[in-house]
Amino acid sequence: MLNPKSLSAFYMLGGLRGLEKGLRSDRTAGLSMDEKHVSGKISFETATGSESSKLMNEGVSSPDTPVERTNTGLRQVSSDAFADRKRVFRDNRIPEKKGKSFLQLVWITYNDKVLILLSVAAVVSLAIGLYQTFGQKHTANNPGVEWIEGVAIIVAIVIVVLVGSLNDWQKEKQFAKLNRKKQDRSVKAIRSGKTVEISVFDVMTGDVLHLEPGDLIPVDGVLIKGYNVKCDESQATGESDIIRKRPAEEVFAAIERGEDTKKLDPFIQSGGRVMEGVGTFMVTSTGIYSSYGRTLMSLNEDPEITPLQSKLNVVAEYIAKLGGAAGLLLFIVLFIEFLVRLSGSGATPSEKGQQFINIFIVVVTIIVVAVPEGLPLAVTLALAFATTRMLKDNNLVRHLKACEVMGNATTICSDKTGTLTQNKMKVVAGTVGTNHQFGKGSSDPTEDIAEKEFAISLSQKVQKLLLKSISLNSTAFEGEANGEQTFIGSKTETALLLYARAHLGMGPVAEERANATILQMIPFDSSRKCMGVVVQLSNGAARLYVKGASEILLAKCSEILSDPEQDLSKSPMTAESTEILKGVIESYASRSLRTIGIVYRDFEKWPPRNVTRIEGDGNQVVFEDIFHRMTFIGMVGIQDPLRDGVPEAVKECQRAGVVVRMVTGDNKLTATAIAKECGILQPDGVVMEGPEFRNLSKFAQNEIIPRLQVLARSSPEDKRILVRRLKDMGEVVAVTGDGTNDAPALKLADVGFSMGIAGTEVAKEASAIILMDDNFASIVKALKWGRAVNDAVKRFLQFQLTVNVTAVALTFVTAVSSSDETSVLTAVQLLWVNLIMDTLAALALATDPPHDSIIDRKPEPRNAGIISITMWKMIIGQAIYQLAVTFVLYYGAIAIGIAEQEDLTKVVSTRRDSLVFNTFVWMQIFNQWNNRRLDNRFNIFEGITKNYFFLGINIIVIGLQILIIFVGSTPFNISSLHPSQTGPQWATAIILGLLSIPVGMVIRLIPDDWIRKCIPEAFKRKSSPPGLMISDEERFNDYPDVFTDVRNELAFLRKLKGGRLNNLKFAVQHPLWLPGGRLLRKLATVISRKSLLALHLLLSHIEKVAGPK
Fold first, then answer.
1. Quick one: angle between helices 776-817 and 374-392, nearest 10?
2. Which of 648-662, 761-775, 810-824 has the largest mean confidence?
3. What highest taxon heads this organism's lineage (predicted)?
């Protein structure tokens, strides 16, 4: 019936009456809470029969029935409840998508260029090592441990793969758990005649559910009754138009009368969302049988590659290429030396072969050193650490790239209500008529009266008028929240209802509504900024109650209550009264109060004469036709106080170079007051209203945006336009939103923040990060963690490159200058430096939490390189220092007197070589401390007490290095003399290592501009000229409609007819191969005639330009 929509099937099933019988439900009372097993049978003939039913009465119990809240979202419904219904139709759960197994994740992690290159090096190294170990003779001084190198590399690969896979596996489990929690939400259903809140998972076929604006529809069904219900089904069907829904009985009657059914749609489709109106519908399919369920079953989202990982892949590839080039060059040099010495050598063929293998080992070692195997681990650890800690800071990261992108955000467009404020509304001021007020905000308390005294002073009739206007013109209802009985719904409406209950003597709101006869409901609409309800009076007349934005309602009033303390007498609305009320509105707004106006109008009969009726319902009238000549009752000021810490958080953003903009639906004065209180609005800032901004030209918008800090009275479309303009200007934009209509802006932004408490499901799905506490201060924490992730990887990269440059250069030079073609650092020593320290350094440097100074710098440009000038300065400076020290020790230690000449025939390794190795390692240990800072400041100890990983890993590395020097003589080629290093040699190694810190301070004193000037122009990053930026929405605005149609049709065809379109593409690119006539005939097979005319004109133009060739 719903896939595709079929009115024929709907009619054959007997319409709503047949579905009601067949599903054993009741359109008024819904399912019974006590249902377990259903007795008897209903045949198709019985369900679709035409005999009268006792269930003919239709009714929407939205505001009229008592409300209860059940805890089905917190506990499982009893196994016996709805047993037969579950057996036949199942509940509304979607089977969980089977996650990847651990082995699959291992394989995915292993498919990394760096790891594959490292694996090749490991295989070659292990093969050579096994040949040396088992294919040659060894002495006591030269044991067979050559295989250790290859095994150690394999261990490194295993560590990287296991850590990455375990992180992904844990993340998948965590995300699955969070998704279950995220998808579970409450919906309002009617069961046993009462409105209850149940878990969306517990919705059953045959349930009667409520529809309200912003709802994401969880199941399929048919509309029972509604007031102007309109749905957006673009997510479910691809149909971009808003579809108006008709009650099922009305559609069934129209079919029986043979009327045109083209615009009749009673179907409520899952996956859509309610844009306007309220109503109830009967559920016909749930879970995997619903349209949305089938779509979810077919979805399979692949893991994303983050921008940081993309940049690192490029860096890793370059490093690997340079390492390979260095290895190849070294091989050529050593091989030439080998060939030159070969002719005069008296070595045996076996010894000559061994010499060649030694050359090959040195070359493989250089390549192994050059490959940055710690990079994948650093990224994995940084993201895993950050996302885990961000969750503790109330940031649920849905897309990993949001972590990194948020660090470089340049502007934040924030909602006001619930994000900057507490979202706890309270009526603190009020005005009835022109001069009857409370909560004036005067500095003298004696001039003001309390809320209770104000209400008592009103006449009984005025109190009743206010009471009815508040209680009936509302969609909020009574329920339980946090163990307390309160109202559930819009914060503004709940504030009014709480005031009415406390001071106007309002009883249960369900009773108030049950005792009234509702003739028409006008749901709240963001374009008209108000809502209303038409109620039948006891004398047969009708009364329209409207509440909404005060300035809009005031403009529609022609009368006002003249003496509210006496009766309902009215007087004309004079210019003086209007000015007084405008002054009250401004005074409320200047105090950051939201002003809500309350007006009414009486009609002698309903529907009134000379008004336009809504198509399809004779008793429903167009609201705009009756929304005039209103009587002004009064207005209230509702306060939503700022959240704690918001002004400080805004200041931190501004310190970080991030512009905070407020985008709110409140009026200009209220928005300005709140913005000043938060610190968002600066003296040179601009405040605009949404319609004013929307109507500006694109050029004018771009001119005003740099100074625009508050956008008031804005619609979701205004927010989307603002985000689009900011992105076109090159800004990195973060946006907050909670409503369904905020989804386009959230999706368009670089980082979308949705509200975990107040946000709709659609907003959460469109966002990248969910604020679990709806607090702006949490956005600042996300900004800090974003920068921390980027800094963590950069710190490690800076350290890694310093080690790699120094180790490769040292190995290359010493191997070439050595008489036996061996490097001062052996393969196993390099492995300790390159693998163990880098792997541990990744853990130490990638787990640094954000420092307090992290927000004292401007965000990086969108196209900035991953290695900055400051980083290159430190890498090159430290590499020069380390190479100078190691070369002096290697070539001059004996001359200086630090080491003595030793007989190489009696020892495997000299004390001099061990001194070089020990000093080199100590320089890396202290250089880790240097790399804790990426800027030119000197405080490298900032936040050190917060990173226990860093302190612990440094202690472990120092302990292992001492152990290697004392007992690692055989595998690590340390001098076998006792002691292997003398006291002065130990002092030399540690002091030269410690000097890395003051050397780093000297390097930081060198201005970055000096380094920038030294870089040849050929190596500088070329910035693209500031050309004309054309957004997607305006790219085709200057083309005729027929050309736009061609574009749209070809875009659609590309998805469905890829092969034919590719042939078409070739034909258009090579017109000489396919004359115009044949081209048009070929096009005619896939596109419409209207579009052919456009293409014919286009081809004619091409022929004129190309000439007669």
1. 160
2. 648-662
3. Eukaryota
* Position 76 pLDDT exceeds 80: no
User: Which residues share a beta bridge with 274?
Assistant: 231
Strand partners, 754: 737, 770
CA–CA dist 8, 535 (Å, integer): 37
How far is Cα 5 from Cα 222, in angstroms, rounded to an integer?
Answer: 11
Q: How far is 773 from 781, CA to CA, in rounded Å?
A: 12
751 and 723 Cβ atoms separated by less than 8 Å: no
What burial class does residue 182 get, using C-beta atoms within 10 Å of its C-beta: 0-12 exposed, 13-18 middle, 19+ buried? Answer: middle
> In this predicted structure, what is the pLDDT of residue 418?
74
What does the buried/exposed string (b/e) look like for 609-641 if buried means 16 or more CB atoms within 10 Å of the residue's CB? Answer: eeeeebeebeebbebeebbeebbbbbbbbbbbe
Q: Tens digits of per-residue pLDDT, 366-412?
A: 776 776 666 766 776 777 778 778 888 888 887 777 888 888 899 99
Longest dimension (CA), the chain: 126
Residue 118 φ/ψ, nearest 5 degrees? -65, -35
With a cut of 80, say whether residue 77 has pLDDT above it: no
| Whether the Cβ atoms of residue 909 and residue 973 lie closer than 8 Å to each other | yes
Tokens standing for 889?
Answer: 């020790």
For residue 801, what are the contacts with CB-CB under 8 A and spacing of at least 6? 319, 372, 867, 875
Choose among 778, 721, 712: nearest CA to 749: 721
Residue 73 zone, left/alpha/beta (φ > 0; ψ -120 to 50; rest): alpha
Asked whether 916 and 886 are in contact (CB, 8 A), the reply is yes
The CA distance from 525 to 696, in Å, is: 24
Lowest pLDDT segment from 300-309, 423-432, 734-743: 300-309
Residues marked as catalytic: 415
Torsion of CA 555, 560, 564, 568, to 10 degrees: -130
pTM to 2 decimals? 0.62
Long-range contacts made by residues 753-760, C-beta under 8 angstroms, separation at least 24?
753/779, 753/782, 755/418, 755/419, 756/394, 756/396, 757/418, 758/418, 758/423, 760/214, 760/215, 760/216
Classify 526 as helix, strand or coil. coil
Do residues 109 and 168 make contact, with C-beta atoms less than 8 angstroms apart?
yes
N- to C-terminal Cα distance for the chain? 59
Which range has the top average pLDDT, 261-275, 530-544, 605-619, 928-942? 530-544
Instruction: Check residue 448 and give its pLDDT.
Output: 57
Tell me the per-residue pLDDT of 577-596, one tens digit each, with 9 for 90 and over: 999 999 999 888 878 788 89
Say if residue 997's pLDDT is above 90: yes
